[in-house]
Design brief:
The chain is of the alpha/beta class. The protein is 29% helix and 21% strand. The chain has five helices and nine strands, in the order βαβαβββαββββαα. The strands form three sheets. The chain has a four-stranded parallel β-sheet with strand order 1-5-6-9, with helices on both faces. It has a three-stranded antiparallel β-sheet with strand order 2-4-3, with no helix packed on it. A hairpin with a 2-residue loop joins strand 3 and strand 4. Helix 1 packs parallel to helix 3. The longest helix is centred in the last third of the chain and has 22 residues. It is globular. It starts with 5 loop residues before the first strand and ends with a helix.
């Protein structure tokens, strides 16, 4: 099957996922060797143990966790390393990787908006930095230069009793940082209005489809000369 010329990825309203997933996905989106993220910093060697392992569960779950805790403790204890006075968490995505043999070689468009967070913003920041995609839509909610996530310590606020997850790992895409304290900015900014939502219009996707149509027509005209 021939490689199609265009690919549209929609990460609007995508709150994130695992680094393993986007690491695998990126291998299909690039044709060059790459490193997805920078080494991920944590506060101390014991940070991975602050994840509320026994946080919630029924009796059966607690029993299972009790038996598996030694393995968890051992794995987390040896998951960090110290370099230049700082502690880092071992993650496969910060190692050099090669593109998949079936990697997409055509033009990539990515739809983003203010509800694109965490892994989706890491992926789009990397794609933009490597000039591998055209980003269309609105600034992401997740920061361009990195996020605090990985795993969480859940803390109950004393007054509201809100169970608040606190990210423990600084995860940064392997890019030249913008230092703007902003989300990932689109190459083609297109805002969705209330009228668009009411009438179920998608101006961002429509822009991409129109651009593809115009490019195909231009290429066809060029080939006919």
């Amino acid at each position: 099957m021939p490689n199609p010329p265009y690919l549209i990825i929609d990460v609007r309203n995508n709150y994130g996922g695992s680094l393993e997933e986007i690491h695998k996905l990126y291998s299909y989106l690039t044709t060059e060797p790459y490193i997805l993220i920078k080494p991920s910093q944590v506060n101390s060697a014991t940070t991975p143990l602050k994840t509320n392992y026994f946080r919630k569960g029924n009796l059966l779950q607690y029993t299972f966790k009790t038996f598996t805790y030694p393995a968890f403790f051992f794995a987390q204890t040896f998951s960090t390393y110290k370099k230049d006075g700082k502690f880092y968490y071992k993650i496969k995505a910060d190692k050099p990787a090669k593109p998949d043999k079936n990697a997409f070689k055509g033009k990539i468009f990515v739809l983003i908006n203010g509800s694109s967070f965490s892994a989706s913003s890491i992926l789009t920041a990397k794609l933009k930095n490597d000039k591998r995609a055209v980003l269309v839509g609105e600034e992401t909610g997740g920061a361009n230069d990195g996020t605090v996530a990985g795993f969480y310590s859940y803390q109950v606020l004393p007054n509201s009793k809100i169970d608040l997850p606190i990210g423990l790992v600084l995860v940064q895409p392997d890019i030249t940082p913008t230092q703007t304290k902003k989300g990932v900015l689109p190459d083609i900014p297109i805002k969705e209005t209330m009228e668009d939502i009411i009438h179920q219009r998608d101006p961002q996707l429509n822009w991409i489809l129109t651009d593809i149509k115009n490019e195909k027509a231009k290429n066809k005209k060029y080939l006919m000369k």
